[in-house]
Design a protein that fits this description.
alpha+beta; 19 strands; eight-stranded antiparallel β-sheet; D-amino Acid Aminotransferase, Chain A, domain 1; Dna Ligase, domain 1; about 375 residues; three-stranded antiparallel β-sheet; 2 domains
């Protein structure tokens, strides 16, 4: 934290944009940035703190009557008491780290026989990853869809949502393929989820860009999951279908500007799909792959966007997140966007490390992925 702030002071920076990793959801860092007279391009430290704890977030949104997954709304370490709670909720249940994120500190428990071992693992993983062993228990929703709503708010109380992203294609509870809009939401459900997301943002006096995550069950019931108080990796698909540059809006809000548009000005145009290009081997349980990028050639063309940080000849190290790039395709409707992404995957040339490009093509050609309902503009 100190090194970043010192670097900003050396170059006389007015503001720091934290991106979407490391310190982007760290309330202490946001506070230190502001204490040094530098603008933090993100929400207030208090908003980050409230939404950084899943339990505190649930407590904050209680008064807004937002649907939540049945479960225990407080942390628990007593295994015997936890077993009683799990039995009352009914298996399968999910043990989750309160301070968790990125799929860490989460354990699915199918029966009472495996409860104790899974809880101990969840606590251990939570302590290792977040320095906080607090866990809570909730009902595990079978066959869920992961739907998130993009919100944007200024410091004057104006808050809008920029529709949803479908993020159900995951490995180890982390996203690999995202798209916007979701092909399964009706206009009524979309509006209800959008309104709920705006209420969540207002519950913590949010400012800037943020994401409210929901689970959608097989009967189209949705439940509040958590709020990410930062820019999401998958924000480009929202930018493509709305024409709104979210990073620009973050900067404008941080400068004290009022949102230049209202909810009624926003609409969905076309469809966008994103593949996270990870340095992982999908044929061997997505194990990390390191090495030198002997060949690195990105696709180009209409409706294709690549956000990356690598060039040919660079090394993929073991120290950081394995994401090499984000590959985004946009077109008039879902089938066309998927086809464009498939073509872009074929044009993307990476040699030297294994990547998720073949997995992305597998998804784009899979019947279950292609069969869902398709619409042009909702």
């Amino acid at each position: 934290m100190n090194s970043i702030i010192e670097a900003a002071q050396r170059v006389k920076a007015d503001a720091i944009h934290p991106g979407y990793g490391f310190l982007s959801e760290n309330a202490v860092f946001a506070q230190q940035v502001e204490a040094n007279g530098i603008t933090f391009i993100g929400p207030s430290p208090s908003s980050i703190e409230i939404m950084g704890s899943k339990l505190a977030a649930k407590d904050a949104v209680k008064q807004y009557q937002i649907p939540m997954v049945p479960g225990l709304e407080e942390s628990i370490t007593d295994i015997e008491k936890a077993k009683m709670v799990a039995a009352a909720i009914g298996y399968p249940i999910l043990i989750k780290a309160s301070a968790g994120g990125g799929g860490k500190g989460m354990r699915i428990v199918e029966s009472a026989n495996e409860f104790e071992a899974q809880m101990e693992r969840a606590i251990s993983e939570a302590v290792s990853a977040f320095g906080d062993g607090a866990v809570f228990i909730e009902k595990y929703i079978t066959s869920p869809r992961h739907i998130e709503i993009q919100v944007l708010a200024d410091q004057y109380g104006n808050t809008v949502h920029l529709f949803e992203r479908e993020c159900s294609i995951q490995r180890r509870h982390q996203k690999v393929v995202e798209e916007a809009p979701s092909s399964v939401l009706t206009p009524a459900i979309r509006n209800a989820m959008g309104e709920a997301a705006v209420k969540v943002a207002k519950a913590c006096n949010y400012r800037g860009a943020g994401t409210v995550e929901f689970l959608l069950d097989a009967n189209s019931n949705f439940y509040f999951l958590e709020m990410n108080t930062r820019l999401q990796v998958e924000h480009p698909v929202t930018e493509m279908i709305t024409g709104i540059d979210l990073v620009e809006q973050q900067i404008r809000v941080a400068r004290g500007e009022t949102l230049a548009f209202q909810q009624s000005d926003l609409r969905i145009e076309g469809h966008a799909v994103e593949l996270r290009v990870y340095a992982e081997d999908p044929l061997h349980q997505f194990l990390p792959s390191t090495g030198r990028l002997e060949v690195y050639q990105t696709p180009h063309g209409e409706g294709i966007r690549v956000d990356d940080g690598y060039e040919q000849g660079m090394d993929i190290p073991i120290y950081y997140d394995p994401m090499i790039a984000k590959l985004i395709a946009y077109d008039k409707d879902r089938p066309a966007a998927i086809q464009r992404l498939r073509q872009a995957i074929d044009q993307y040339k990476i040699e030297g490390v294994a990547t998720t490009l073949p997995f992305g093509k597998f998804v784009c050609e899979h019947e279950a992925f292609l069969m869902v309902r398709s619409t042009r503009i909702l």
